[in-house]
Write a structure and sequence with these properties.
mainly beta, 358 residues, globular, 5 helices, single chain
Length: 358
Amino acid sequence: MSEIANSTTEEPWLKVTCDGELARWMAAHDVSLACTTYQTGKLLLLGRKPDGGLSVFERNFTRAMGLWADGQRLWMSTQYQLWRFENALRPGEIFQGHDRLYVPKVGITTADLDVHDVAVEEGGRVVFVATKFNCLGTTDERYSFAPVWRPPFISAFAAEDRCHLNGMAMEAGRVRYVTAVSTTDVADGWRERRRDGGVVLEVPSGEVVASGFSMPHSPRVHRGELWVLNSGTGWLGRVVRGKFEPLVFCPGYLRGLSFVGDFAVVGLSEARDRKTFGGLALDEELVKHGVEAQCGLRIIDTRTGELAHWIRIEGMVSELYDVAVLPGVARPMAFGFRTDEIQRTVALGDPREMEKQN
């Protein structure tokens, strides 16, 4: 168990617990995990300590949401910016017991687009879901952002969140699928279709791949299969021949999905906002399974649907948005802006590389 205490009261404002075999699983697969929480504005980095315990590192970023990672670099969306983090450590280098030090190097101001999922295409272009504008976008050197695609049922680019476009799945280095809570074309219209209006769309055609979802999120293509979180019901599953095939129920509102081999890493949230989350089938499923909604991560064996490992997050953090796998990382940390460590710590580039360039 890891606890982070309030400096004034010494009461833990964040308590993270996990099963006893989680660190061993992370070591066996040589991964760490990262997740975001927009409610309390945190980037959480979960790794393993030398003694086999769980390492928890957090930094503050207002409305942290979409997350993309490859082990050396992170992209994260915040309230009105996109941040690119770079690992400042050389191979084999350790800093304060950590083998990754993610430093925010580039901040791109986008204004408040309500950016949800973020990804990097094969050619290096950053693409994100601009939920407020019902479209996919990319960065622009002059303007807030450049729209690159919108669903065919959306008639105009307007800051009205008409369908709550939220998730995207990459395939062969390009965006292939997106999720939306509805196909409505009026401001805030998606709220009336939360229970069964959700769709998965193919990009760029805009054709409906599957429908009937309840607030779907986090579509992902893994090993040639399209996986989706049917968030309003609490079920993880895949799309097979145009139908959602549920695999396992997870006790929470689901957002954030990543994969490690045969395992799916799923983010869970407590659904406390009754205006947005009330009246969903998730309430009925929780009663049926005799559990309450939880905040944390579940690691599911996709071959069987069985729970392999779990992480429970309690305290001030009650929801998660995204989760990413950090391959080849044992114990990550990051710099933020609330302390002066980012000002005092200098990472010098390799002089030999400069000599080669000259």
